Amino acid sequence: MSQYRRHRSRRSVALAAGAVAAALAGGLLIALPGAASAAPSGLGDDFNGDGYRDLATGAPGAVAGGKAKAGAVVVSYGSASGISAARHKTTSQSSSGVPGASETSDRFGTALAHGDLNRDGYGDLVVGTPQEDVSGDVDGGSVTILWGGASGLSGGTTVSDPNPAGHDRFGQSLAVGDFTGDGKADLAVGSTGKDVWIFKGGFTKSGGAAGKLRLDARIESGAYPKGAVRLAAGDFDGDGADDVVVGSSAGNFVYRGGPAGPVFQTEAGGGYAGALTAGDFDRDGHDDLVVGTDSVPVLDPTAKGGYVTVFYGGAAGVDPARTAVFTQDTPGVPGTDESDDSFGGALAAGDVDGDRYPDLAVGAAFESIGSATHAGNVWVLRGGASGLKATGAQSFNQGTAGVPGANESSDLFGDALHLADHDKDGRADLSVGAGGENSDDGAVWVLRGAAGGITATGSVSFGASSVGIGKSGDDPMFGDVMSGS
Questions:
Q1: Which residues contact 301 (CB under 8 A, 6 or more apart)?
Q2: Distance CA 60, CA 359 (A)
Q3: Least confident of 7-11, 152-156, 267-271
Q4: Which pTM does this prediction carry?
Q5: Of 24, 109, 138, 435, which has the fewest beta carbons less than 10 angstroms from its beta carbon?
Q6: pLDDT score recorded for residue 21
């Protein structure tokens, strides 16, 4: 169900990680936020309950607890002045109260999702660690819920894998939504198997989910990247229960939510999706599904460098016959379609100009700009009464006036995106990750929403070291994933 029509935030997710051995060996690295309000906001991405939406960002290759590529997650707190490097909390499996231990190549934070899972008014963060070895099962994978509270995320609970012998990489994809329509946030978890597990709300810190449902998706199982590679949530039929989209190498499959759990509805585009997101772009009361095809099959004539397809929702759910396709050659979209740009490799939906129509951010991390190969670029397409449109589309990179930094080869600017109103001015701000910045240290940019759309004026940028993530001979790739990506 769309976060633009309902107060709860239950959108799918993002990926997060990052930490320095010395800083994280003892637990949390904290720059304390201001005091949270007495009554928490109930927003699914407000982890300290102060009424401002927060940003969860990943550095899955970061050192934590002295272990290479153990991974960590960074929450940057929203405020009246927006996001900054100073207001953050960094968490790893070396942090006090977090289950497990930081181990080499775990990659804690490879997948993220957020929502108020225990209904205490504070947003909670779900963290996937698909490469974690569990009880001798190599790359068995694990899922951890980090609980929100007045001081931000603190402590965690493990979501147990119901079928460890049937798949690997449990937690490689995540989505939060009310898939049963009972008013409680549920959690969908994917792996390399066909089995997608729906863990039912409400959750408790001590006991986990209230129950679970198994969804056997119409996908291929096997070694990664097979199985449920992507998951997304949206209420495409407007019935009050969220639907779940399972993205795989075999295509993208939509399952309508209901009291007995999700039931297959339709396929939305064949082939591997680089990204999925949802938003009600025409405000007709039904969420619309967006599929990013960033790696174009050889025989697909749509575009050389990737494309984005909008499948509009309706009373019967996603309508495969009502679509809109956008490429860099679409009139109104700046740029030129070129091979291997990876246009559509990252997506995010949010209302950037305050007109109440969600807009769409599109990333192309492999876009080359001048002599800078794979520097990366981001576009913003506008929503309206007729749906998403290219007219008035905006384009941003590190060479855009007002955006900090400079275009350099392999920066991968735009390999993760997030849209949310972090300063409560009624307009979504654009967060951009570049996991390749500074030789894979990684960095994050935040550009403000405004009446005319996203503006580079007043943009902020901060790198891995600003949030306590050190390279220590490794490649943290801070900004490689974000909640809501």
A1: none
A2: 28
A3: 7-11
A4: 0.92
A5: 138
A6: 29
